[in-house]
User: Fold these one by one.
Assistant:
Number 1:
Amino acid sequence: MTHSALAIRDVGMVFRRGEAAVEALASVDLDVADREFVALVGPSGCGKSTLLKLVTGLRRPTRGGISLYGKPVTGPRSDVGIVFQSPVLLPWRTVLDNVLLPADVLRLPRVEYRDRALALLDLVGLAGFASNYPYELSGGMQQRAAIARALVHDAPLLLMDEPFGALDAMTREQMNLELQRIWAASRKTVLFITHSIPEAVFLADRIVVMSPRPGRILEVIENAIPRERSLDDTLTPEFGELVRRVRLLLGGQGVAL
Ligand code: ADP
Ligand code: MG
């Protein structure tokens, strides 16, 4: 392992509204190495999205601290790219202009980033769709555009919150293959939240299994299945064993996914 890209230290989060308090995260410790792909699985409401938001700096934890590339996270920063479950493309912007949005927001030079955006559209399999509008794209294509957008400002860390949750099973498998390819080509560090255990096993170097709320890490499972992985790998005993281990951990907590 090279140096740590992301360091989460004893992070806790309590949401307060008047008298009411919700403890979303108990105490989370996690290191993600540079260029590592880490998947986070856990029951609904266990604080996965909260943890991701804390990493982006959009919110501060009520306990503990987070560092990115050795620097404490104290507020929103430009060295992360984020992909959500819904692609949230702006309908009045072309695909290219949607991909360029972070560059516009960060006031980066458009001329330079236009070429980069076009190369990324190529990378995600959308060459030729630069001047189309979002409504002209399928759900899977829109999500690819959202991935290109998250990569455009060349942030080293990619945070993905159930990015393929809204896609049908076949498109989702295709997107898993695509993401593996994009990750290998773009050499990013990825923290990937999913509800799908097979998706986590297919994509990740390590699978982090969380407890029900208040979320804490139950176990971190190493995935030694060699890359590049193919859909045939999902049919091997090794793959099945990893899926089973994650399922048992979640099942042991009385969780139905
Ligand atoms: P997950 O992504 O694992 O499904 P979340 O991180 O979205 O879970 O939520 C964890 C818990 O924190 C839930 O009980 C949720 O209701 C609560 N929560 C999340 N965001 C807020 C907020 N802004 N204010 C109050 N409670 C919140
Ligand atoms: Mg969530």
Note: Residues 15, 22, 24, 42, 44-50, 213 surround adenosine-5'-diphosphate (ligand 1) (CB under 6 Å).
Number 2:
Amino acid sequence: MSSQPNILFIMTDDHASHAMSCYGSRINETPNMDRIADEGMLFNNCFCTNAICTPSRATILTGTYNHINNVTTLSSKLDGRITTFPKLLQSDGYQTAIIGKWHLGHGGHSDPTGFDYWCVLPGQGLYHDPVMSDMGEEKEFKGYATDIITDKSLDWLKQRDTEKPFMLMCHHKAPHREWSPDERHMHMYEDIDIPEPETLWDDYSNRASAAREAKMRISRDLNAKDLKLPVPEGLTEEDETKWKYQRYIKDYLRCVASVDDNIGRMLDYLDAEGLAENTIVVYTSDQGFFLGDHGWYDKRFMYEESLRMPFLIRYPREIEAGSICDDMILNTDFASTFLDYAGVEIPDEFQGSSIRPLLMKQPPDDWRTAMYYRYWMHLAHHNVYAHYGLRTQRYKLIYYYADALDQPGAIDDPREPEWELFDLAYDPLEINNVYHDPDYADLIEELTAQLHQLQAEVGDVPFTKAG
Ligand code: CA
């Protein structure tokens, strides 16, 4: 048997960590996800570098920021000719597969590369009876996407060559909008009210106009397909929002419950086959999500709920069970980490760092204490302004440069640039922008310089107005 570890990478779409019991969720239980945390390490500060599906997926595969891998928006495609960690593992003798959500384009150079086997949903894919592209051949599968993706993942594991290590990316569609549950969980939470988040009634005062202008409000922007039932008549405005929140969050949590069950099936398989010891298991999601926080659903903003990714990792050989890490890790780090464990050289162009020292509880003295973020898809879908920013351990500085800059799918309708600064020590909910508070003037100067320094370090450039 190979000394290289197997890698099982399980990723969902839009699952925020505040809907996981191991992260202290007030609204649900996720016993199988918790198993990974209990037997491995939980990261409290794993951040994405662009909180939206396609770009985050490109970053995970390539280990680079989106201005480097050219997948800046949902309308971008990944060029399959660029270097990814699955390709490097494959050429080093790993058996590799991706099953489920791909969302990085189809056809030409955009089909998955670096995988011995791939079977992926086209675009967003369907929850029920999904069509999947099985090595380029379209097939319909009867059943519920989360079950099917797990079945196919297990089938692939069962037919593998047991003499060689494997790397499997099991990518669920759930719990992405429109949050369609399966039969088994359809009636979960029926007789209870899910607690509301503290900022459900956010009025967006004392913030840049970007928050007020965003169109992702529970109260106003959920459509009939999202709600699946007609809004009852005669409700007050407040009661209608409460009703919509319950409709939304219950379906979201039902989708999560199905993912959790299916993760249990994967973990049971590893146990039954004696693979748990030598397999790195990761559970993450491509970014976070607003679960009624700030009155919203969706993501995109650099605010905590969408910036933060859940990240659980189990590898009994090196990770002490039940450990927790507060150091800052990014989705740019995943590729380097897997290559490190496989003993494969990390290409110079990869921008992240292997988190292996953190997993062994030996954090390097110079581990990052700040990160750079950029959302490019100006105004598209939810009217969120393009922005970039800096997050340190205590502060968050955001610059809404609010310009499409010719990015694919972004809408060319610039807005006046604005800044936000949040002092997370006093304002963890990010409802009080202190950018214009004179007490913060010196700090703002310092943080702005740090933002531009970090931006230059990753090879990005500041926004300058065309003209
Ligand atoms: Ca997503």
Note: The pocket of calcium ion is lined by residues 13-14, 53, 286-287 (CB under 6 Å).
Number 3:
Amino acid sequence: MMIRPSRLRHTSHIRDLSKENNLSLNDLVYPLFVVEGKNVKNTIESMPNIYQFSIDKLLFEIDELTKLNIKNILLFGIPNTKDELGSNSFDENGIIQKTIIEIKKRFDNLFIMTDVCFCEYTSHGHCGILKNNLIDNDLTLKYLQKQALSHVEAGSDLIAPSGMIDGMVKAIRSILDQNNLINIPIMSYSAKYASSFYGPFRDAVESAPQFGDRKMYQMDPANSNEAVKEVFIDIQEGADIVMVKPALSYLDIIFKIKDKINIPLACYNVSGEYSMVKAAANNGWINEDLVRDELLLSLKRAGADIIISYFTKDYAKKINKYD
Ligand code: PBG
């Protein structure tokens, strides 16, 4: 007898039947950037098809997204004025708070996740409050609590702290619990690397650090045991979902962590990963749809349950066309 593994590849039916991993809009999250003003839809040169929207324009965009069956969004706010403390981030009239309130008034079938960090809001562009030009970790925790609480009071459905501040999950869980917001989950950017793949995002949110870099709080790309350590700490502190970021150069980290935990694992397919594909596609060098789907599927295969990706809208458009 000949053993024929190709039998399971012979027709599209048997291939679909025996497929191990699938992409679904249930698992995809679409990031969105909001700015102050009216009637604003700014292109971002390094991220084709991604925009900065003012709230009025964002509402039109969200209408389109919900019609495409996109279920989850991740919001980033870009305030007009930045200061040392990033005060706009915890102001009840801050850009993100106003945005959440307006979305919630109109869309009840959309899950709103909000990024909790300071880099978009501080004049120095670092992810926390500084003392002598260094992040004061423990002082930052107090401000993170204010920021997270104000997001949830505005209507955020999930808090995603991304600053790699020690103790951030514990601090946020405790302030939410104290305010009886016991059912708001925390998705922690647990293993977030000091990556050059964030370059285009920093154009999008105007958050490049004004001096130094983020290597004192984000992880060294050379490390993988450290990612496991960070994830375990966050789970212990009460994270509901943990994340690896970036995604495509870190498939080994996703695989390793998935094997060790029993809660959902997210990954962030970041701006540079998106822009590289767009650039190659715009040159006609690759088939964008096929490469995109193969990359997203590779994240699933590695072990990600949830994928945050700028490709979500393109993917949704494609599957809606064939539905
Ligand atoms: C920090 C944050 C960053 C990203 C998401 N949240 C940037 C950073 O750490 O500099 C990067 C996302 C991307 O590159 O797409 N608030």
Note: The CA atoms of residues 1 and 7 lie 14 Å apart.
Number 4:
Amino acid sequence: MNKISEEMIALGSTRSVIRELFEFGKVRAAQVGAENVFDFSIGNPSVPPPAIVTETALDLLQNSDPVALHGYTSAQGDASVRAAIAGDLTARFGMAYSADELYLTVGAAAALCCAFKALTCPGDEFVVLAPYFPEYKVFIESVGAKMTVVPAQPADFQIDFDALDRVIGPNTKGVVVNSPNNPSGVVYSPETCKKLADLLRAKSAQFGHTVWLISDEPYREIVYGNTQVSWLPSLYRDTLVCYSYSKSLSLPGERLGYVLVPSASPDAERLYAAVAGAGRALGYVCAPSLFQRIAAKCVGCTADLTVYAKNRALLLEAFAAYGYPCVAPEGAFYLFPRTLEEDDLAFCERAKEFDLLLVPGSGFGCPGHMRISYCVPTERILRSLPAFEKLAKRYH
Ligand code: PLP
């Protein structure tokens, strides 16, 4: 047998829990009918992109030079596209941005990988806050850094600052935050964000080097009521924003996002070069050309998010009635209730007996919980409620 990277074999052959559930769902659908399987496992947007996406795509395909349209763009993304996005950020967040601060990427996943690779030097660590997106571990470790976890604060899923204070050490290169959060749906309050910025400033001063803030924001626009998502670069200078159009425009398969590199940082020029270098080393070449141009025309737009609001309200009401303790979060399209037994893996196995496909919280660094992705047709929610009720009755 030839030698092949064992690390990559392990990564490529372990099916994620979500994938397992997906396969299970397919088998059950064949047995009991797809309408009787309640799959809440995958965070794939269930609403179509806004009409402007299709209109712009058609217009570009029919009326622009196909050679340029399908050609490579510059590695950091087309300059006019970056200018359009920078203009939108300037208008929305009251800070002046230019095209030169943006590096377009193949979704938030690539934005994060570029950010981690750009920053990482031997011995570096990144802190993540539970519950966290499980791919962080893969991204961070694949650039040779170490991931350190701050345990969750399940009462409200804001930040446990005592724990964060203890975990940030001299090797901490950055702290990763994700608000609105996958899997909890929670949006960090303005107080949490301000406290975080103050702590990072204090830690940077204590250790004599910047502790960067990596803000992973694919759900920025998916919020309910009057919720405001704090703009972290206005609170903490050394913030890299990693953004994605996957969720806001319902375009996860088209792979577009960006890194916003903080130009006010004394290291800005070198950092931007390092992000570009990381994109090059990782072989991204450039973000998809057609969807760069589409995004430029869609600044400020989102898919119709009303179905998520409706689904969220239905589930929260039902969970309160059936006795699933659940923080009522203000964003994303996930709920993260407590499981009705401590062992979340056992609980989610039992849920399968009712054809409910729920993701155990352990994979997000937060046992005793389950993630419910409610980016599904409302009809599925309504049909699933008796199953949730029966499952709860097993415990109460
Ligand atoms: N970060 C979080 C928290 C996510 O939930 C996801 C996708 O679900 C990503 C990053 C990756 O998003 P993208 O599709 O833009 O790569």
Note: The chain is about 40% helix and 10% strand.
